[in-house]
Amino acid sequence: MLTLFDLPHSPFCLPIKRALEALKVPFHVEDVPNWDRRKVIEASGGAYYGVPMLTDDGRAIYESAPDSQDIAGYIDKTFAGGKLFPKEFDGLHDIVIRYLENEVEDATFRATDAHYVNSISDPVARIMVLRHKERKFGRGCLEQWKANLAELRAGARSHFARFDAMLQHKPYLFGDRPVYADFLLWGIVGNYTWQHWNEVPADLKALQEWRTRMDAFVF
Question: Are 179 and 84 in contact (CB under 8 A)?
């Protein structure tokens, strides 16, 4: 049994889930609270605490480095036959993935987290997530992000506009069917627009249409 250890709104969990769905691979979802990674730690034998993570018949598959693609690569080799990482796009595809994982995700997650942390109803869980954010980004980071939402959204728009320009010429980022970069962008957009806290600008019509195609795509 394939199991996905998942944080539902994570920009890195969402593309893995959508890729498995698009490939029509049966899998079980194990939701992992942001403030309690016990399930992941136990399933990985203490080797990992992040999400996403897969287990396949007891074997744990997780990222070996911050910029690795071990989970997506495992799905590609095991279930997709190279469709997620086509050889003809080697190099350029990697550049787009790195841009998405770094600059684009960095420009979008703060606009989501400005709302997400306060949406956690359990006070202990909320404070534990706040503690994690402040240890990483500094005390008062959430208040700063809330105050700068307009600026954060403008930054997100500038990145999304680049992909909108690409998608005006083809249905997916690299051609007639999605590659892993499409799923990654889909996850980042899904995180950014989670609970409608933020929206993709209405004038980015090609990106909006691409998102609708990605919602329904199956290989």
Answer: yes
